[in-house]
Write a structure and sequence with these properties.
Number of domains of chain B: 1
CATH superfamily of the largest domain in chain A: P-loop containing nucleotide triphosphate hydrolases
Bound molecules: adenosine-5'-triphosphate, magnesium ion
CATH architecture of the largest domain in chain A: 3-Layer(aba) Sandwich
Largest sheet of chain B: 2 strands, antiparallel
CATH topology of chain B: ABC transporter involved in vitamin B12 uptake, BtuC
Number of helices of chain A: 18
Strand order of the largest sheet of chain A: 6-7-8-3-9-10
CATH topology of the largest domain in chain A: Rossmann fold
Radius of gyration of chain B: 19 Å
Structural class of chain A: alpha/beta
Largest sheet of chain A: 6 strands, mixed
Strand content of chain A: 15-25%
Strand content of chain B: under 5%
Distance between the termini of chain A: 69 Å
Structural class of chain B: mainly alpha
Number of strands of chain A: 20
Radius of gyration of chain A: 23 Å
Oligomer: heterodimer
Number of helices of chain B: 12
Helix content of chain A: 25-40%
Chain lengths: 520, 304
């Protein structure tokens, strides 16, 4: 009975007190298919998968797996039944290495449980190579970027021999090339009979990969269709309930004075690897400068130098005409707003309430939420401020006092983006700002960026998404091996050309990785 | 010279309970369970060990019942903290108070004495004379003639080091301490690992208690753990649960504990001589952790 492979029967999930995350969802997944689930932020995609995987107990409904009633009370039982999952909010141990994270839970052990790495380390290395993941398995999770962490999360799944692969937004932080390689491998796995459940907001990927597509909206399953003759606009309409614009209209840039300048930045990390070398560029008021590059070519370090989390060995940073090279983070934050790539760790405090997260940074800088006595915050004003953010950015929230971790991934991202945009500064630094957002929200954020540009702000945009770079940027800088190797105008270049600059770096990666002696 | 030998000898003896409790606490430390109940577990172990030895007439039964005492205390702690998710600090404090009150009360009910219970019927642990070594001058008395648990606990430090940093269980344990949900998500129950860590700490604290009342001395007195559980906790936190660090730091504690004892009877008031080991431990910990931090450049060293 093939169509009895996975069968979910009116699954309901209520998060106390009264968030109806899933409302009688029926879903059938056939053995050996690639089944995509799409839907707006907060539609319940992740929740449905967590229920299936045993991470969230359902409030009602039944699940049948391989024709038998299955109720996974913990992920342990799901794992034992051959199910694996890539989690949207990564499940990684920060102080462990990539390798240790991969083997955790499926460790190779000899007598008395002594760990044996002799066979598995090469096996993990090999997986990294065959999937073209380009990460060092000995680096610590806490030291690597979100894109690399995303790959580790995928690697964890590939390392285990599972029959059902659940992938919750596995490509949110990958570049198109990396996603392409991943898909090729997924198809290979699919050919040998693995079933894949794929969640993504990138409709092109969904159309490219899936056999069938399920659309969810507001906790319900709207429709499941065969992937034949569908187009992107149609899918988007089914998801959001209206037409979505995929490319932003923008007027030509009217340039003002320089609002950000990097001059000769050089950064060498603690292992002696040169991460940035001679990086100089500027951003003017009224323009959006995009940075393209394969993950791990210095973008991450550049952002940290700009925000003040790292300090450069040489070079200077100017924001709004001030030399901020030696200044601390706070001094810089007065001059810039910043959307970090990592909403879970740097972007928010997961256990704190929505209000607390919404007023972060504002609590120091924004007089609007102060009490009459300046030293105090007015809780009424903080709430009003948060409500405004929630309204303007269309955040789907249960209540203002709920911890931010109870929001869906995309909605958390909206809170971070909204908070930063409400800081009215002339320089905007965006690191993967639309990661995990649905098409409707991406449209909103992108329009907002353009609006701010037209109002005279200068914006530096780092994105793994070439489409986003093309549609937003006035200039695109390509980074490779820690240098800016090209400056291009989107109307005068092509994806292929940018890709060549980016990949030119890839071939030379080997000798770049070989540690270079410094300080002698 | 004789005084030196005596001091080093006694420092090894008084280091042992701190080391044992510390090794137990290393498990809970890595599982991120804030275990302040070690003091209480040790005290209960000391009491049940004396009771077991007294009633059975065998030191082996005494040690086993000491371990059982610590185990029961740990089970209570685990049920509250892991299953019922109560606050670790509050639960631990309650357990410590229960241990102090409970052992004092039982002392009076069971043995009808106040303060301390001594009896010839309590069988203490035998001392091991190591054949050749015991004859070496100076070194002999230092290394030989201790209760066997002293040797066992040093060996145990190496075993625990291997267990926490070299085995599958250890990898999972430390992962639970950092992010329990991530461990659950790969199909390993973090609650079970936490409970196991608490039980390990209970067993080792119970053993530490048994050593106190059957090895170090042969009696039970009220509150005889006397802050050793707390010292163990401080040592664990500042050595970040590294068994080798625990071994070193508990020897430092032991050394100054011995020094404090030998300063008694001099003009220094006894209240001050009793403070010596505690102050010395804190000072040593300060230097130890500063050293570690600069060696690591503010980060942990890789463990693979
Ligand atoms: N732990 C939680 N506690 C309370 N509510 C929650 C919790 N997790 C999710 N929710 C709510 O359940 C709803 C569905 O969330 P879910 O994460 O499934 O959305 P999603 O479809 O995966 O969205 P996204 O595309 O943003 O990841 C949201 O309204 C969210 O606020
Ligand atoms: Mg989700």
């Amino acid at each position: 009975m093939q169509d009895q492979f996975i069968k979910m029967d009116s699954i309901t999930k209520i998060y106390p007190p009264d968030t109806l995350a899933l409302d009688k969802v029926d879903l059938e997944i056939q053995e050996g298919e690639i089944h995509s689930i799409i839907g707006e932020n907060g539609a319940g995609k992740s929740t449905l998968m967590k229920v299936f995987y045993g991470m969230a107990p359902p409030s009602g409904g039944e699940i049948h797996f391989r024709g038998r009633k299955a109720k996974f009370a913990t992920p342990r039982e799901a794992v034992a039944s051959g199910i694996g999952m890539v989690h949207q909010e990564f499940m990684l141990i920060p102080s462990y290495t990539v390798y240790e994270n991969v083997i955790l839970g499926a460790e190779p052990a000899g007598r008395f449980g002594t760990l044996r790495h002799a066979d598995t380390k090469p096996k993990v290395e090999e997986l990294v190579d065959t999937y073209g993941l380009n990460i060092d398995i000995n680096s610590r999770i806490g030291d690597i970027s979100v894109g690399a962490q995303q790959k580790v999360e995928i690697l964890k799944l590939l390392y285990r021999d599972v029959d059902v692969l659940i992938m919750d937004e596995p490509t949110a932080a990958l570049t198109p090339q990396e996603a392409g390689e991943l898909f090729a491998r997924l198809r290979g796995l699919n050919k040998v009979g693995k079933t894949i459940i794929f969640i993504s907001h990138k409709l092109d990927e969904v159309l490219e990969l899936s056999d069938r597509i399920t659309v969810m909206r507001k906790g319900r399953r709207v429709v499941t269709v065969d992937n034949r003759g569908l187009d992107k606009a149609e899918l988007a309409r089914a998801m959001v309930g209206r037409d979505v614009v995929f490319s932003i209209e923008k007027a030509p840039a009217s340039l003002g004075e320089i609002v950000f300048e990097a001059r000769g930045l050089r950064y060498v990390d603690e292992n002696g690897v040169i991460r940035l070398e001679g990086v100089s560029f500027d951003v003017r008021r009224g323009e959006i400068v995009g940075i393209a590059g394969v993950e791990g070519n210095g973008q991450y370090e550049l952002v940290q130098l700009v925000t003040g989390l790292l300090s450069a060995q040489s070079g200077r940073v100017f924001i709004g005409g001030h030399d901020v090279t030696g200044e601390d983070v706070m001094a810089r934050r007065k001059l810039m707003c910043y959307v970090p790539q990592d909403r879970k760790v740097s972007g928010s405090a997961q256990n704190m309430s929505l209000v607390d997260n919404a007023i972060m940074t504002h609590h120091r800088l924004n007089p609007e939420i102060e009490d009459r006595c300046e030293a105090l915050l007015s809780s009424g004003r903080c709430r009003a401020f948060t409500s405004r953010l929630v309204e303007d950015f269309g955040v789907l929230v249960p209540e203002l006092d709920a911890p931010i971790s109870s929001l869906s991934g995309g909605n958390q991202q909206k809170v971070v983006v909204g908070r930063e945009f409400m800081l009215d500064t002339d320089f905007i630094l965006l690191d993967q700002p639309t990661r995990g957002l649905d098409v409707g929200s991406i449209e909103y954020v992108q329009e907002e960026v353009v609006r701010r540009r037209d109002a005279g702000a200068g914006c530096l945009l780092i994105s793994a998404d070439l489409d986003e770079l093309f549609s937003l940027s006035d200039r695109i800088l390509v980074m490779s091996r820690g240098r800016v190797v090209a400056e291009l105008r989107p109307e005068a270049t092509t994806r292929e050309e940018i890709g060549e600059y980016m990949l030119g770096a890839k071939d030379a990666q080997e000798d770049w990785r070989a540690r270079e002696e410094v300080g002698k | 010279m004789h005084l030196m030998v005596e001091m080093i000898r006694s420092s090894i003896l008084s280091a042992t309970p701190v080391l044992l409790a510390g090794l137990g606490g290393a498990y809970t430390f890595h599982a991120n369970v804030f275990n302040i109940a070690m003091e209480g577990m040790m005290l209960i172990g000391a009491f049940t060990a004396v009771a077991g030895s007294y009633f059975s007439g065998s030191w082996i039964m005494g040690v086993l019942s000491g371990i059982a005492g610590g185990l029961v205390a740990a089970l209570i702690f685990a049920i509250f903290v892991v299953s019922l998710k109560t606050d670790e600090f509050v639960t631990g404090t309650a357990l410590n108070m229960l241990a102090l009150g409970g052992t004092t009360y039982s002392l009076r009910q069971l043995f009808h004495v106040k303060g301390a219970f001594m009896s010839h019927a309590i069988q203490s642990m035998p001392r091991w004379n190591i054949p050749l070594i015991s004859r070496i001058p100076h070194l002999g008395p230092i290394l030989s003639g201790h209760p066997f648990i002293v040797y066992a606990s040093i060996l145990l430090a190496f075993v625990v080091e291997w267990h926490i940093f070299g085995t599958r269980y250890g990898l999972r344990l430390r992962a639970v301490g950092e992010d329990a949900r991530a461990v659950d998500s790969v199909g390993v129950s973090s609650d079970r690992i936490k409970a196991q860590a608490i039980i390990a700490s209970g067993v080792l604290c119970g053993l530490a208690g048994a050593y106190l009342s059957l090895g170090y001395v042969t009696l039970f007195s009220e509150n005889m753990s006397n802050g050793r559980g707390w010292i163990a906790l401080a040592v664990i936190i500042l050595t970040r649960g590294r068994p080798m660090g625990l071994l070193l730091m508990s020897l430092v504690f032991g050394l100054f504990d011995g020094l404090g004892l030998s300063l008694q009877g001099t003009i220094i008031p006894p209240q001050f001589t009793q403070m010596v080991p505690y102050i010395a431990t804190i000072v040593a910990l300060y230097f130890y952790s500063r050293e570690k931090r600069s060696a690591r450049g503010g980060k942990e060293t890789p463990t693979t």
